[in-house]
Amino acid sequence: MSKAKNGPLTGIRIADLTSVLLGPYAAQILGDMGADVIKVEGPEGDTTRDLGPRRSPGMAAVYLNANRNKRALGIDLKSKEGHAAFVRLLSTVDVFLHNMRPSAVNRLGLSYEEVRKIKPDIIYCGAYGFNQKGPYANKPAYDDMIQGISGLAAAQSTLFGRPAYMPTVLADKATALTSVYAIAMALFHRERTGEGQEVDVPMFETMVHFHLLEHLYGGNFDPPMGPVSYPRAMSPNRRPYETKDGMIGVLPYVDKQWRAFFDMAGRPELMEDPRFCNIEARLANIDEVYATLGEIIKTRTSAEWLADLDAANIPAVPINEPADLLEDEHLNATGFWQSMDHPTEGKLKFPGIPVGFSASPGGTRLHAPRLGEHNREIMAEAGLTEAEIDALVSAGALCSQSGE
Predict the structure, then answer these.
(1) Is this model's pTM higher than 0.90 or not?
(2) Under DSSP, is residue 58 helix (H, G, I), strand (E, B) or coil?
């Protein structure tokens, strides 16, 4: 495990009041980049603590993979004592991150207006389902709902004959990444001006922005000049292709690549076919183009195709199962997979940081914490005395897996 301590966010403290995946993933990335992330949980803990295989209660796989590089504070913010203690902690943080609905965070007395009274230059980031200025503002939202309302589920109809959800929590993860860059930009603004601010990151708007990058297409024009969908991405024949003995992914794209592909297939005349001769013609006839590609790929083995396509500099890859990635030669050669010995969960394997920084690389410093594992040290850093911390424990305002 990397012990790097000079990540670009070293010195930044974050109060992470998030749960499930969107917020915890965002906070984990910030922690990977050096931030001191304090994971704040109530007595029940983050719901992902019980999601997936586990060696110990409250330390399930999904939780472990989204909560490294954090310290844990278990505190009952609904109690008078817990709320007062947390307010003292807030004066020491740079970023307040939450993914509660506005009505819930307001009931806790932790709206932006309240928090900025405690720390005027705070970066206050709320990751919501929907922009707070619209009629959907207080609708509950999970990844499936956002995939549906953003048009992403309906886009799968060309493959499945009906709307379908992507087999990954894409809306959660895309919104998490958006939250990370939004927080980083707000911190940069504060560095230059001294001014804190409120940052809203709505899932719905984030996914419409993400989804329609290519799919807005004809809708870019007013009035529209074509469908609101990108034909190449929507073709049912755009898929992994069968070979004689398996499947590969292949995508000739520019004219040079298509010409080389048709030549190696013994079909050079296809480059003169008006359906295939240039990128505009191929886009207009994309279903036929990909159907032809699929028929040609069936004529050789996967190994034969991959060798020939690599030699011709045509993008081509094997179709991996998720488990294959654990042994992928490239990922292993680059040190992508990392491991740590967790003090209670034993040896763990996890993805490392995918981006590289030559001067401030960040790294994995801390294991995913048990509920309330760092209660005493965090409260002491907030200025509470040992007696005051003992009183919080006695009042039930602090909670942890150890029972204290």
Answers:
(1) yes
(2) coil
